[in-house]
Amino acid sequence: MQRRDVLKLGTLVMLAGPRAFAATRLERADVIVIGSGGAGMTAAITVFDAKAKVVVLEKMPITGGNTQLAAGGMNAAGTVFQEKRGIHDSVKLMFDDTYKGGKYLAQPELVEILAHNSSSSIDWLTALGADMSDVGRMGGASVNRTHRPAGGEAVGHHLIHVMRQNAIKRGMDVRTNAKVLKIFETPGGAVSGVVVQNVLGELYSIEAPTVILASGGFSANLERVAKYRPEYAGFSSTNQPGATGDGLDLAADFGAKLVDMEQIQIHPTQAAGSKILITEAVRGNGAICVNRDGKRFMNELTTRDAASAAILKQPGQSAFLVFDEGIRRSLKQIEGYFHLELVKSGKTPEELAKAIGADGGNLAVTFERYNKFQAAKKDDDFGRPDMPRPLKDPSFHVIEIRPGVHYTMGGVAIDVRTRVLGQDGKAIPGLFAAGEVTGGVHGANRLGGNSISETITFGRIAGGEALQFAKENRPF
Amino acid sequence: MNRQIVRALGVAFLFALSAGVQAQQANAAPGNCQRCHDAGLPLPETHPKVKGASIVECAACHASQAGQAKPYPLASRLHRAHVKVALDCTTCHAYAPGTHFAVLGHQGNLGALDAEQYEMVRKAMASWANSPWLAATHGNKQNLSCGACHQSQPIPDDNETVVNKQCVACHGNYDKLASLTRAKLKNPEINPHSSHLGPEIACTVCHQGHRESKPYCLNCHTNFEMPIPGAAAELAAPAAGK
Asked: Rg of the Cα trace of chain A?
């Protein structure tokens, strides 16, 4: 918050609490949703369809939050789409994968909610007009359960488009450039409304008995990341610029308890000098990883945290993803990296080495050695379990990569009804939260495909719970 | 008790301000066009000699016509010419914070602006007459007045709905703009009007009338070369002596 806002807000609050705004502009709603990513829009649609008045407040000039950048998919167990493909999955299996993936640090009752409701969340999205009919697999899953649009569209792009269109069709009140500066409380400690800063920098207030925090994580707030994890200082972020964690401050000001804040996920392959994430599928489809000496240094298919740690040990704390025309052809997304001018190329390993300032002889040897392992289906150096393609089809290409801050597992503590918990562990009346702003669903590590799943499932619950609370506690 | 003190201070502040306004009016002979223009200040060659002593008489020709730039819109000609030479609003307007804003010598009250809103309007007018930003491009090159973009809603809502609708009305939708932009792109695959952020986003995400414009893409795609009109950060100083 700017100093000026604080002073102004302070004066207004000192005068008469939220009513000080009545002279200029005071609005009322049943439910206020802070944030317009997957969780916020899901909660808002749920409330709106129950014929209650809901206002979505998004501080950025565009809606969609970090959800719109999600490229993987949505994990769900026991869905109609899995059944069609003969995939045998269960709530128990999804729970086990998620709990284990998070190193047993997550709140088991929240993991249970995630797994148990995932299939109905897929149905909910389908009813909204989304296509989640394709099923693939991401790291840490025992079976194929990552749902995504057929035809290769990125999941977040698709879902946000569907949600925006649903909001437009319904005539919902979704406001961009609207930053919540404070959540007001009643003398009894319950939610009573919010102060909003509008596009001109002016303040107005909305009175409401419930607020749903769906304001996302704080991966784009590198100062805050470094506060919890000093070793990540100087990293860049893969997130949209609004993922600064303001919602955590709003909640903390209200007395909410924060959990697992130091649990921050690093993604190993962010394109160096940019914010662009290079999808894991590039390695999955055959790319190798070399350092500045032109040498491999790890099993490229290891977990995100291990790969990040290995890259950080290399000279310059970065590395190079190397692939050939065969691998390029195998994955549509790679073409995008060429469009974004992130790729350097050479006709031979020596020429490629020149492009990245590596030793040409070393890189040629690395290619030869890897291709031998690939043919024998056994990586004697690093034990890479899967080598689907050799590196032999020129031209050859590299993308320089370094680890980037990707996801914050911690956040406000919630119960299974998405009620925000105070320091004493008791639910704060009228305050709900869903999505990345919450902590406890993923534990120490989030599996790919579980974030979208969380936003939809917990967004639906938060919408329903806030609605119920608002009906019982309407002050007007 | 606190509240009473704050209110008393507020009223004192209002008096101080209006006293200041009155003092200023006395010095600058506000509202009297003849004083300045008879003393040699230029008007367009085709402009008849200023006879009236009051701004009210100018308004007979320079009538405000919402959203139109013809034939003699108050905003486009009269306002811009004066704001361009950095004259303050109170040269022609009577202003009392929070209660009164009017044309000097005219009975009607145009509205109640608090000090902050007054400053906002002043800056908006200044940037429309004299800035490297889009408001000035629309004003100076196209002779457009405020209403052309803002219609009858001077204070935009959070989504800047009206302004964005007007952008599309004149410039076309994203499909049209994407094809226009494509011809100018170094890399045809990177088109700001056809991006992964979707067709629903507002024009004002990147294009701003009263402050610098910045492509939203650059928040993440820091390596893009993406020129945009109105990108200069600073408000240009008014040209001296003109």
From this structure: 24
